[in-house]
Amino acid sequence: MQKAKILIVDDEKSIIQVIEMVLKKEGFRHIFKACTAREALDLLKRQEIDIILLDVMLPDQSGFELCPKIRDISRAHIIFLTARTSDLDVLTGFVTGGDDYVTKPFNPLEIAARIKARVRRDAILPPSRGKEEVRRRYDFGRFVLDELAGELWVEDRLVSCPAQVYQLLLFLCKNPNIVYSKSQLYEAVWGIDGIGDDNTVMVHIRKIRERIEADPGNPQLLLTVRGLGYKLIKGRST
Predict the structure, then answer these.
(1) Cα distance between residue 93 and residue 67, in whole Å
(2) pLDDT tier at 83 (50, 70, 90 boundaries)?
(3) pLDDT tens across 51-71, in order?
(4) Is the dihedral of CA 78, 81, 85, 89 positive or negative?
(5) DSSP character string of 163-230
(6) pLDDT tops 60 at residue 195
(7) Which of 45, 67, 176, 209 could link 97 by a cystine bridge, Cβ 3.0 to 4.6 Å?
(8) What is the sign of the dihedral through the CA atoms of 195, 197, 201 and 207?
(9) What are phi and psi of 142, to 5 degrees?
(10) Please, which residues bridge with residue 151 across strands?
(11) Distance (Å, rounded) from C-alpha 15 to C-alpha 215?
């Protein structure tokens, strides 16, 4: 927890202070702050950040406008802080490159829990040696996911894949032909049971289909099992 670098982007200093205080009590030591989009971008160009708490309403531009610019220079896990709760606003956050969101007013301990879950999943293991240096490639015919390289190849073409979309696809690749409910997928990938909602998983499933399916509107690989959830159909393997 002490090594994680967190950036809080919010123009309400009182909110920044509360979040910072709670995160420090929870063991986080490297906390950076920005009150505008410009400050955030300037900081990200100088400092590598692991997790960004991004307010939607900023004085110089919205968090939705800022998010794609962040994605150009950083692979940090982005959690939107928003008072907007409509489905459209939530979907906009994911479409622009966000990984998760928390609605205002929020409990700072919830934010700390989400960050801890993310840090646990991003923990870097020591380099493997000998027989453990096996290149993990998941070949589904139309697409190949290279876990070691962190790359998605679709019909021999490298396709960009946001971190959280990649993590969800990786989980499904490791567990093909198994039906998972939305809550099971959220817990497996985001790491907190019961905090997420259906929109989070649904949007990321759609993003995966847009990348791996020939016709995303008529999926043949990542299927919806009505009333149960989703499953990834296993193709040929290498």
Answers:
(1) 8
(2) confident
(3) 999 999 999 999 999 999 998
(4) negative
(5) HHHHHHHHHHHHSTT--B-HHHHHHHHT--TTTS-HHHHHHHHHHHHHHH-SSTTS-SSEEEETTTEE
(6) no
(7) 67
(8) negative
(9) -70, -30
(10) 146
(11) 44
Give Cα 206 to chain centroid, integer Å: 14
Tokens found for residue 162: 């946001």
Residue listed under structure tokens 């692979």: 75
Q: Angle of helix 13-25 relative to helix 108-122, nearest 10 degrees? A: 60
Q: For residue 105, what is the DSSP state? A: S
d(CA 165, CA 176): 16
Whether 51 and 6 have beta carbons less than 8 Å apart is answered as yes
Q: Which residues contact 189 (CB under 8 A, 6 or more apart)?
A: 121, 164, 167, 168, 171
Q: CA angle at residue 149 from 134 to 2, to 5 degrees?
A: 100
Encoding tokens for residue 39? 């400050």
Confidence of residue 196 (pLDDT cuts 50, 70, 90): low
User: For the structural domain made of 5-122, what CATH number should be given?
Assistant: 3.40.50.2300
Please tell me the CATH code under which domain 134-232 is placed: 1.10.10.10
Q: In 3D, which of 141, 185, 182 has the Cα closest to residue 167?
A: 185
Residue 23 confidence class, pLDDT cut points 50, 70, 90: very high
For residue 145, what are the β-bridge partners?
A: 138, 152
Give the residue extent of every domain in the chain.
Answer: 5-122, 134-232
- pTM for the model stands at 0.61
Handedness of CA 93, 181, 197, 78 (dihedral sign): negative
